Task: inverse folding
């Protein structure tokens, strides 16, 4: 039960690292959209 959870955490960490490595522009656009949605709410 511990191995699957650990593997899942590692996979998620790698996915986050890849997304950050792709480019800060994409993250900035997504963060801006999140802020706009919060403002609307």
Result:
């Amino acid at each position: 039960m511990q191995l699957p959870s650990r593997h899942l955490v590692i996979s998620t960490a790698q996915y986050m690292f890849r997304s950050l490595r792709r480019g800060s522009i994409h993250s900035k656009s997504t963060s801006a959209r999140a802020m706009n949605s919060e403002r609307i709410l």
